[in-house]
Design goal:
The complex is a heterodimer of chains A (300) and B (145).
Chain A: H1 2-19, E1 22-26, H2 29-39, E2 43-47, H3 62-67, E3 73-76, H4 85-90, E4 97-100, E5 108-109, E6 128-129, H5 136-153, H6 158-183, E7 192-195, H7 201-207, E8 210-213, H8 225-237, E9 242-244, H9 252-258, E10 264-265, H10 282-297
Chain B: H1 5-27, E1 48-57, E2 63-68, E3 71-77, E4 83-91, E5 97-104, E6 112-120, E7 126-132, E8 135-142
Antiparallel strand pairs in B: 1-4, 1-6, 2-3, 2-5, 5-8, 6-7
Classes of the chains: A alpha/beta (300), B alpha+beta (145).
Amino acid sequence: MKIVLTFLSLGVAWTLSASANLKVATLHPVLTDLAQQVGGDHVEVNGLLKLGGDPHDFAPSAADIRSLSTAKLVLASGKGLEPYLEKLSDNLSEGQVLLEVGRAIPSITISEDSALFVCCPHHSEGSLDPHWWHSVKAMERATGIVEKAFAESDPANAKVYKERAKAYKQELEALGKWARKEVAKIPRSHRKLATAHAAFTYFCQEFGFQSMPIQGLSKEYEVTSQYLADVAEELKAHEIQAVFPEAASNPKVLGEMIRGTQAGLGTPLFADFTGSEKARTYKQMFEHNVTVIVKALGKR
Amino acid sequence: MRGFPLFHTGLMVIALAVLAWPLIILTRPASSVQAAPVQQSEASLAAHIPVRLDARWAHVPEYLLVSHLGEPLWEAASLSALQAGLDATLSIPEEGVDLEVTVRWPEGTPTSALQLTVTPEALPAQDQVLWGTVDESDVLTYQWK
């Protein structure tokens, strides 16, 4: 009997150790999805910013910070998207790791070289676009960064993370190839992506578009009548056919901006993939954006 | 008042008409200037020019398809030599062109490569390489800027 009990207790202990999850907290839905892709069942992900939340307005509440206490690893997107990171870091205890996934990804600064129309000096030029995940290649790189962090935090499952990361990178590679073929339907001379805010410069760089963020980076920008006239002139000069609003934002201001021009209002794009059935995962968000852009700007 | 009244009335009508004409010109509403429609689709693209396409491969493929803007530009099957070529015409805007290349090698072919050289008239030749196994398809970008 004693032998049976000993074996049983050993079995239970082994099962517990095998299913012991690495607890990870994330500050952006892109990272929640990425952590689940790389970690699978071995990782318990606590996404602080839920679907539907706006990462630009988000700051963790006291309850959020308390919920971080069990996380071994906190994933942030970086590049200035989370201005509260320093304070958050102060609340972490020893042994908890805060990782800015975007830190190792080359940044794009909004400049006259990367944008067709640089809104106004204090809203666009010189600002950093934090939306690095709109580059599939950047996501592949981020997958490697997350895999390495998981392996360091949970060496027992390092092999699993490596295999899952490899499989996800292959999925991303296929996604990038599909996107290149879709985008190839748009003549390179027509690849001008006019959006509300400067959230797609990584996408533009990867797929040969010129970026035209007509409302700059800030969502609070006051639109004057002179500014409206300037934008209309630029839209005409660059023969812009469609201006894309962002999902979950009010396209009324954009509607005002394109009035009297040849441009139409495109289907909304997802900048942060929050809040829609059409974009529950990174891949769904990316496919939606590419499909919408190609439909509006493709060969006519 | 002397003279013929009908004559005087006629003179007065003519004088009023002469005075009214400049007033009509000055006060009529300005005709709206219709903005010329933007001719984007083809006007901003360069005209079609002769282009030479040359393909070389490490292993002879069974099938090759080169498309531009979703339209087949070069389709070839039953290839036997280690290289092939085609004369075509293509519009080359200053932003460059994307060519979608699909290549199929026989089963069992190891990782192989296809080099596609594009030589437009009066422009230098440019080449790109597509690596793959058995069935491969991707977009190759050519720019002359």
